[in-house]
Amino acid sequence: MTQTPVESNLAQAASNYIEALARHTSDEGALTRLYLSREHRAAADEVANWMRDAGLEVSEDNLGTVRGHLAPTRSDGSNRRLLIGSHIDTVRDAGKYDGNFGVVAGILAARSLRDSGTELPFGLDILAFGDEEGVRFPTTLLSSSAVAGALDWQALQGMDADGVSVREALTAFGCDPDKAGAAAYDPRDVIGYLEVHIEQGPVLEAENRPLGIVTAIAGASRFRVSVRGEAGHAGTVPMALRHDALAAASELMLEIEKIASAGVKDSLVATVGEITALPGAVNVIPRDVKFSLDVRAASDAARLEACEAIQYAGRRIGARRGCIFGFERFHDAPTVPCAPRLQAAMETAFSGMGLQPRKLMSGAGHDGQAMARLTDVGMIFVRCRAGISHSPLEYATPQDMGVAVEALVRVIETLAQQERT
Ligand code: HGY
Ligand code: MN
Ligand code: MN
Predict the structure, then answer these.
(1) Residue 19 has pLDDT above 90, yes or no
(2) Domain boundary, last residue among 284, 315, 333
(3) The domain boundary residue, chosen from 333, 360, 388
(4) Closest ligand by atom to 131 CA
């Protein structure tokens, strides 16, 4: 697909922004930028500067979300606006594009529309959320939930590994946690939410397509699982008399894999990403194991059924091994359908660019799951190399990023056109 001149300088601009953002990291030689960290503060300040350069009016809410507002060219006296955003926090040892490109795309699209003098009957708010990954604190989607008017105040008590609460970290970030509720939009002011995001999967690349239209975002359940066994001397306790918490946990993990693998038709997946074993000595039988569990599926029924089956398996394994399993569910996000009217606007934009409107669902979670509690949600996926994400190998070409920004501009123009007629 040949690049139009517009797309090629959007491509270069996007690539420059992505590289600049990647420099804000806590880890030498890797990209890690956790919510309310020093690196998040620096990235938020840089994004705010880019928003100002694009002619946007910049503010920051009390959850640390940076907002850039482009006023409508023709005001109808209302406060209506289209929201466009994604997140600038990352996982550990992350890729540069997950989340970050959605914010960059929003800024570039706003700048392009301002520069072209396109008539906009509604405003644009570009939102840079700070807590989508949920890596530092036991929360996720906190900042977008607040914007959606669905803030879980309890989550502000959550603590990171150093015992710092969200509330304390917000204050250190320059926010006033007591005013966190003011981040919410009035639903009457919002005409929709758009997010541009790398696919984080292999479909678009396999079909040689730069972009896709998201039909739904898979629901997700997250648990903290604990296993209580009995510590003992590694040399003296016979195998048959052990209550080994790590062996019990391992047996359940294989059972989790079996349950998820049986759910392919529902795109069921389950992942154990973190684990600790105590007391953690080479010659002591583990007494306490804690591990994370992330379960997702294309339908809520399949996901919830798998969660039940996994908990039942834990109880069965625990009874046989004399260990006790605990399951604390700390996150449950339902499957979110993307609005047909926003998908249709994307189809119009794509066909105007000679692109096939390939539709696919998202196995990854996104801020759109929170924003769906406020307004209609639409997502554009961008091809990423080998579908790799949550890894430094994550990569999207400048060309595809340029095409994605151009598509976003055309979706906004399509929605503006619909408002005018
Ligand atoms: O976990 C997810 O799916 C997202 O990347 N936070
Ligand atoms: Mn993401
Ligand atoms: Mn992610």
Answers:
(1) yes
(2) 333
(3) 333
(4) 1
Based on the domain organization, do 388 and 373 belong to the same domain? yes
- The whole-angstrom separation of Cα 157 and Cα 160 is 10
Q: Are residues 42 and 135 in the same domain?
A: yes
Which atom of ligand 1 is nearest to 132's Cα? 6
Are 274 and 293 spatial neighbours (Cβ–Cβ below 8 Å)? no
Identify the pLDDT of residue 4.
58
The pLDDT mean for the chain works out to 96
Q: Which ligand is nearest to the CA of 102?
A: 2
Same domain? For 288 and 349 the reply is no
**Which ligand 1 atom is the nearest neighbour of the CA of 98?**
5
Give Cα separations from 31 to 50, 93, 98, 335, 390 (angstroms): 20, 5, 11, 29, 10
Q: Are residues 226 and 204 part of one domain?
A: no
Q: Is the CB of 133 under 6 A from ligand 1?
A: yes
Do 193 and 308 reside in the same domain of the chain?
A: no
Can you tell me the distance from the alpha carbon of 327 to that of 310, in angstroms, rounded to the nearest whole number? 10
Provide the CATH number for the domain around residue 177: 3.40.630.10
- Atom of ligand 1 at shortest range from CA of 200: 5
Provide mean pLDDT across the span 42-64. Answer: 97
User: Which domain range does residue 278 map to?
Assistant: 219-333
State which ligand 1 atom lies nearest to the alpha carbon of 363. 3
Cα of 220 vs centre of ligand 1, distance in Å, is 9
Q: Which CATH number belongs to the domain containing residue 313 in this structure?
A: 3.30.70.360
Q: How do residues 108-119 score in pLDDT, each as one tens digit? A: 999 999 999 999
pLDDT higher than 80, residue 357: yes
364 lines ligand 1 (CB under 6 A): yes
Q: What are phi and psi of 328, to 5 degrees?
A: -110, 110
DSSP state of 339: P
Q: Decide whether any atom of ligand 1 lies within 6 Å of the 365 Cβ.
A: yes
Asked whether residue 301 falls in the same domain as residue 351, the answer is no
Ligand 1 neighbour 102 (Cβ under 6 A): no
Q: Is the pLDDT of residue 1 over 60?
A: no
Nearest protein CA to atom 1 of ligand 1, as residue? 365
- Whether ligand 1 lies within 6 angstroms of the CB of 132 is answered as yes
Q: Which ligand is nearest to the CA of 135?
A: 1
The encoded tokens of residue 304 equal 């919830």
Residues whose CB is under 5 A from ligand 3 (ion)? 98
Q: Domains in the chain: how many in total? A: 2
69-99 burial, b at 16+ Cβ within 10 Å, e below that, comes to ebebeeeeeeebbbbbbbbbbbbeebbbbbb
